[in-house]
Write a structure and sequence with these properties.
five-stranded mixed beta sheet; Hypothetical Protein Mth938, Chain: A; alpha+beta
Length: 172
């Protein structure tokens, strides 16, 4: 599948979407930018991110993989809530479920100073209480609430467009 409408041009190749009623892994076939964090795939209980080559991130769980252009990439499978920006990866973001979200969890996002935040609410689209996202609104940071699968896809598009985006992801 490809998104070619202006101003975005991203090629996305799903490896699998649905098997019966069970969501399986969705993998992106992206032109790899080795200087930014990107979401490579997602599935129930995990998100796989690529680690920039020039990063000082030790990425203890990173594995070498082959990218779509046959280049070597470092990737890491994350199994806990996370925040990803093009330049930073926050592993183990404290809220592990939608019910755990609190306004204080937005503090780390504020420190990252994105222009837009994609809040992935897990498997389903759930709207947080207005008080939870109030710190973002007060700082003039835009935000979109969507399920985690949609947040992963949208992050890659906005990141590829050069936007200062942060995806705060609760696991599916």
């Amino acid at each position: 599948m490809a998104c070619t409408s202006w101003p975005y041009a991203v090629k996305v190749k799903p490896s699998s979407i649905y098997l019966g009623y069970r969501l399986t892994t969705m993998q992106f076939n992206l032109e790899i930018d080795h200087s930014r964090y990107a979401i490579r795939s997602y599935g129930p209980g995990e998100v796989t991110v690529t680690i920039p080559r020039n990063s000082e991130d030790p990425a203890p769980g990173a594995l070498d993989a082959i990218g779509p252009d046959s280049s070597r990439v470092r990737q890491e499978v994350l199994t806990r809530s996370t925040i990803i920006t093009p330049t930073r990866l926050v592993r183990d973001w404290p809220p592990q479920s939608f019910g755990d979200l609190a306004p204080s969890h937005m503090d780390i996002i504020l420190e990252l100073a994105p222009e837009i935040v994609l809040l992935g609410s897990g498997n389903s689209l759930l709207w947080p209480d207005a008080a939870i996202v109030a710190p973002l609104a007060a700082a003039g940071i835009g935000y979109e609430i969507m399920n985690t699968a949609a947040a992963c896809r949208t992050y890659n598009i906005l990141m590829g467009d050069g936007r200062r985006v942060a995806a705060a992801l609760l696991m599916i």
